[in-house]
Description:
heterodimer; A: mainly alpha; 12 helices; globular; B: alpha/beta; Rossmann fold; six-stranded mixed sheet; 9 helices; 10 strands
Amino acid sequence: MAARLRRVAAILLRLFYLLRGSSARVVPLFAWQAVDIVLWGFISRYLNSVSSARFNFIPALLGAIILWDFLVRALHGVIVAFMEDVWSRNFLNIFAAPLAISEYLTGLVLFSVATSVVVLAVMVVLATAAFGLHFFAIGVMLVPFLLLLFLFGVALGIFGAAIVLRWGPAAEWLIWPLPALLSPLACVFYPLSALPPWLQWVARLVPPTYVFEGMRSVVAGHGAPFTPLLICTALTALSLVVACRAFLRVYHHAVRSGLIARYSAETVS
Amino acid sequence: MPAPVLAVKGLGKRYGLTTALDGISFRVGCHEILGLLGPNGAGKTTTINMILGVLEPSFGSVTIDGMDISTHRCEALERTNFTAVYAPLPGNLTVWQNLRVFAMLYGVPSAKARIEALLGEYDLLPFRNTRCGVLSSGEQTRVSLAKAMLNRPRLLLLDEPTASLDPSSAREIRSRIREFAATSEAGVLWTSHNMYEVAEVCSRVLFLSHGKILLEGDPKTLPAEHGKESLEDLFVAVAREPLSLED
Lengths: 269, 247
């Protein structure tokens, strides 16, 4: 067990060294999320001023963007950590070391935990200071909301890593737009009922949809319904299992076909 | 007979209808430096990749220090290390950082002291805080060699370890590796296209061609046994007319 922890710590240490030595890696951790907070903060404030309804857009929109960016950060945490080994042609050194694939993935996920939590804290502080958001007014339901979003982000990240491992470094361009492609279905800014009926069925397969529906319900003072949260938990768990199995399957294919051994050379070419 | 450090038995790799490696068997003993020779595409790197567990054999087995790589991967790789020109250490970490990370991965006890010793041994002290990516190819090779020695491996795999070194550094490295094999409970598998180097370092060589072991023997006597003047002449013959050398 101690050996396993040591090897996971080695993966984390490598990523920490990379962050410490490069402001170009640290700044993007916060920059886009900060821009989102400022942008959606002003949009929410403007909507409050022109809307005759008593509805407060700040918690609904700004709260939603914080949760969504948290999910995106979780995804990026995993995929960026994985891409560091792709970009530095480190696969042969890593996979020829006495490191189990589960330990490698655990290292990537723990890195994602660390960066996501820090970025969440920065977003909340910024939104509170600049726009008066009471993020924690969502209450105790924040815990399952954040946990489910984080786990789904991790599942997307692991699935993205599997795609890059299978189809080569150029496939990273399929991964970065994933959050943008998913956001209309996740109903981040509008209720599920705003979608046409056939698309609602598709959206119901996307776990974050239930979190954002739940968040809006809590903000409106109705509390979070239990059954949708249960469905969300089941779908998130399923996503994680599917992503991990996909990664393992691709890894074993790469070991069988010689892709791992050739990956460095192909990255160079 | 003492147990070998590496036992390769009937090892083969097929890609569809193409056979990259055709059931080769060999052993590397303790204190032995075995040269794996052959023209490009002969199957040397395929063999090394399968020993390292990054390529799954189609058939056959690899046993390192008594551990089958297919069933005891981590235990076998803890006893192994390697360096290859096509696997440089990440250029965005410093020499110290790279060695620290790999020391943790390989479970090196008293890692800091071991790294300090290796930095001195491989003339890397001035580059301790330099990113590997900005080092010359020779310096990068020395860092890779230091990484390969971190865990005092029982099996050391060296794929053209002196390819980027000047003659003086190459001689120094050869002497270090000879000393390592002689003084530790380790065996070395060495590939190189430099026949002078192979004759100097290896106690035994295997000639691979088209995925098969064609010849095996002492690099000092093998050329004469096959009517050639030097190991290089024998290498050229293996590369150009392997059939003439098959039994």
